[in-house]
Each structure stands twice: as structure tokens, then as C-alpha cells.
Amino acid sequence: MVWYSGGLYHIVVNGWSDRKAFHLTSPDGITNWKFRGLAYDPTTDFVRYADGTVNHWNKIERPAVVIENGLVACFTFAVLDIPKSEEKGNDAHGSKVIVVPFDGVAFDRDMQNLSKAERPVDAPVPRQ
Question: What is the residue range of 13's domain?
């Protein structure tokens, strides 16, 4: 999945072999991609809502973003609560799509601050 927000292009990509996803950014979407680390890991308390609810999913994949007014408002994911090999056709474990609210304002601010800290002192400032 690729999107643009906060002056950067972002990619979140699934690492299918270890069932984790990773985040990369680029100022122009073509060059200077930077590895930002783990985007999500289904073995952790990744899906945590403001009311304290925590969802645990065995498999989280197919991330997508919903952009509102230029900011990420939420992510959507395809999820499954058991290993795929254990899912049977007529049980309650079929894959689902979940919507996870996201603070795009804080995310863009943090990404911009990180980018500024990484830019050499004499480097030109990217145009917004």
C-alpha cells in the first residue's frame, strides 16, 4: 500500500514469511526510501481502541488507508482470528475487514520532525 501525507510518500508492505508489515518513506516516491521499521505485528496488542478494547488477530494483512482532508483517518485490514489452515467454510472464523481509527495529524507531525532531523544542514528543504 502506498500513500502520500505529511510531505512524504509512505509504503506499508507485508513480510509474508514472518507475518509482519514494515513501513518505508520517501520524499519524492522514487528515490531515497528510508526503512522506518515495523508497521505492525499481529502477535502484539496492535489493534487497541480509545475505549481500551484490544483485538487479537492471528493474521493481519491487506492494509489500506482512508485519507480525509489530506490526512490518514483510518487504516483497514483483512484479518483472521485463527491460522488460515484451521479456517473451515461454515464457522465463525471467516476473514473480516476491520477499520482502525488513526491520528493522521500526530503521524504527519512526527514524520515531518523525523525527516527534518535526518536532513543535512545544507540540504534544500523539499517543497510541499
Answer: 2-118
Q: Could you give the 3-state DSSP secondary structure of residue 105? A: helix
Q: What is the DSSP letter of 44?
A: S
Residue 104 lies in a domain: yes
Asked, for residue 127, whether it belongs to a domain, the answer is: no
Cα separation values, 119 from 20, 59, 65, 113, 116, Å? 29, 36, 27, 10, 5
The predicted-structure confidence for 49-94, as pLDDT tens digits, reads as follows: 889 888 888 888 899 999 999 999 999 999 888 887 787 777 777 7
Q: Please state, in angstroms and rounded to a whole number, the distance separating the CA atoms of residues 62 and 97.
A: 9
> Model-level pTM?
0.78
Q: How far apart are the C-alpha atoms of 86 and 79, rounded to whole Å?
A: 14
Cell of 36: 522506518
